């Protein structure tokens, strides 16, 4: 027998639970159920929410960032209208994270640089290599994407890296790239690329201060690990 939301005690229904205890008290399925609003005659809205989350089980909830409305609408109990609501909510959350990160204007250390870049690259399914461009007081002038590679590697050309620095009249730069696996441990190629760009920076008189690898809510600084040279 399917238990519908209307059959639950009032304090256990997602909407009432949110209003009474705050959004943080709800599970992912309960939050999604509020967006979906209604179920079907054969399945409760919580059941449909569970099916959506199960669809993205391998990628985790982060996989929802890349979902298309048509992909969602193919799940039983979700039409295009509900799919559009979910996609819109996820995009609002992503934009909020980016907007919050943009409040960081000065880089005092690797954590500032990582927090600034994390919302942009955390959920990407391919490697993206970017440079954070700084002035003489380490104020952020911009974050310029230089290349996009496969899931295994990025192809980084020094001329493109330093062209961005020259365009922004940067005094220094921080290299950044993401690991789609979520593990920020550096590969041999990561270290080799870093050392090549550090040498080029000395010649160009635009020092490379660090290379930060972004994982899933974590990061690694090659400078802190002593891998810059």
TrEMBL record:
Q: Provide the GO MF annotations for this entry.
A: metal ion binding; metallopeptidase activity
Q: Does the keyword Hydrolase apply?
A: yes
Q: Which PROSITE patterns match?
A: MPN, UPF0758
Q: Which Pfam families does the entry link to?
A: RadC, UPF0758_N
Q: Which residues form the MPN domain?
A: 106-228
- Alphabetic keyword roster: Hydrolase, Metal-binding, Metalloprotease, Protease, Zinc
Q: Which CDD domains match?
A: MPN_DUF2466
* InterPro entries the record matches: MPN, RadC_JAB, UPF0758, UPF0758_CS, UPF0758_N
Q: Which GO terms describe its biological process?
A: proteolysis
> What is the similarity comment for this entry?
Belongs to the UPF0758 family.
Q: List, alphabetically, the PANTHER family matched.
A: DNA REPAIR PROTEIN RADC, UPF0758 PROTEIN YEES-RELATED
Q: What is this protein called?
A: JAB domain-containing protein
Q: Which organism is it from?
A: Selenomonas montiformis
Source organism lineage? Answer: Bacteria, Bacillati, Bacillota, Negativicutes, Selenomonadales
């Amino acid at each position: 027998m399917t238990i519908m939301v209307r059959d639950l005690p009032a304090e256990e229904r997602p909407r009432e639970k949110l209003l009474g205890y705050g959004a943080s008290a709800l599970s992912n399925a309960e939050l999604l159920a509020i967006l979906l609003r209604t179920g079907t005659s054969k399945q409760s809205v919580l059941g449909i929410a569970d099916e959506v989350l199960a669809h993205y089980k391998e990628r985790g909830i982060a996989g929802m960032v890349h979902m298309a409305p048509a992909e969602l609408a193919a799940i039983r109990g979700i039409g295009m209208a509900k799919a559009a609501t979910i996609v819109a909510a996820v995009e609002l959350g992503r934009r909020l994270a980016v907007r919050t990160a943009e409040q960081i204007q000065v880089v005092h250390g690797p954590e500032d640089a990582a927090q600034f870049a994390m919302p942009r690259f955390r959920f990407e399914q391919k490697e993206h290599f970017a440079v954070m461009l700084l002035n003489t007081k380490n104020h952020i002038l911009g974050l310029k994407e230089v290349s996009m590679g496969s899931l295994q590697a990025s192809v980084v050309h020094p001329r493109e890296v330093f062209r961005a620095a020259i365009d922004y009249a940067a005094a220094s730069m921080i290299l950044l790239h993401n690991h789609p696996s979520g593990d920020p441990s550096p590969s041999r190629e990561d270290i080799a690329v870093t050392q090549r760009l550090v040498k080029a920076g000395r010649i160009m008189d635009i020092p490379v201060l660090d290379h930060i690898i972004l994982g899933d809510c974590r990061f690694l600084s090659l400078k802190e690990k002593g891998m810059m040279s």
